[in-house]
Amino acid sequence: MKASAFNYARATSVSDALELLRTHGDRAKVLSGGQSLMPAMNLRLVAPELIVDIGGLAELRGVAVTDECVRIGALTRHADLARSAEIAVRAPLLSEAVSHVAHPAIRNRGTLGGSLAQADPASELPACMVALDATIVIRGQAGQRRVAAVDFFTGIYETALSPDELLVAVELPVANKNCSHFFCEFARRLGDYAIVGLAAQAIVEAGGFADLRLAYFAVGNRPVLATAAAKLVGTAPTPAVLADACITLSGELDPHNDQQASSSMRRHLAKVLLVRCVRTLLDRPDLDAGGSV
Ligand code: FAD
Predict the structure, then answer these.
(1) For a disulfide at 185, which of 13, 135, 197, 227, Cβ 3.0-4.6 Å?
(2) In a 3-state reduction of DSSP, which class is residue 14?
């Protein structure tokens, strides 16, 4: 199929893009890499009257490191993230996760901002933002506002963005030097959307967790920051503790059924990922959940 007829404007600046969005409201759509928007338009799932192409706004692209944070521009492509030496050192979770996002041709065009604004619950990068405790930087006519990643995703394909706002950047807090990460997803093939996935960041001290952020994807209507992590922080990890965390996890997820996996299958896989994550981060291949997984 082909997209419905639409008008096209190439924004010359962020202010220009915001003015176009203000004028046209929800009849306009921002175009970044086009890897989600164009297929949706071709399938006529969306039919905007105006496309506001922000792809030429160089100020929205790139990685900058300050004393306080790592700032990544919204137009930074998946392939740029994968190649970035700064990201590899300061946010290796992202470097690892991005290789699971689609395929090279899509990663060459798709952008971080586009992926976060799209807010597919099975996407890797939104969950990474939650695990890394990122801040989403949004610009609108009224100025700039910042939203914690955990509050940014509000539902399936829904975010805190208004139709007249632009996601301009994300800011990652400078990671503690003892930080480690875990990323794993179950998918039918490398590059497919996840059936269930987990992005995690931790601080490991004296063989246990001083901090642990577990961000699951494809098990609810948005990335889930699992409270089960609290069961594992500040305590000696034992099979009983891990089993208790698995029970808590199971209760807080709301996985859907589809042709790829049932809800109970997803719940089971989420627990498998929790056990793998804990074993990997603590370097304890012997640790299990006492048969509860
Ligand atoms: P666009 O398609 O340009 O925009 C997506 C949406 O976000 C649109 O609604 C647009 O209006 C809005 N938007 C874009 N930028 C902004 C902004 N700065 N401010 C406000 N709104 C904005 N993704 C995964 O995460 N995992 C996968 O495994 C995966 N597999 C894929 C497989 C295929 C075959 C395809 C076609 C895509 C796949 N994707 C996957 C999606 C891909 O990662 C997209 O690149 C990404 O979701 C959107 O980025 P984009 O820059 O292309 O955004």
Answers:
(1) 197
(2) helix
Domain locations in the chain? Answer: 7-53, 63-173, 179-292
* Residue 187 CA from chain centroid, whole number: 16
How are beta strands 196-205 and 153-155 bridged, if at all? unpaired
Q: What is the pLDDT of residues 102-135, one digit of tens each?
A: 999 999 999 999 999 999 999 999 999 999 999 9
In terms of pTM, does the model score above 0.85? Answer: yes
Nearest CA to ligand 1 atom 45: 110
CATH for 7-53 is 3.30.43.10
In this predicted structure, what is the pLDDT of residue 8?
A: 98
231 Cα–ligand 1 center, Å: 35
CATH class for domain 179-292? alpha beta
Query: Is residue 161 within 8 Å of 28, Cβ to Cβ?
Result: no
Q: How far is the CA of 110 from the centre of ligand 1 (A)?
A: 6
Fold topology of 63-173:
3.30.465
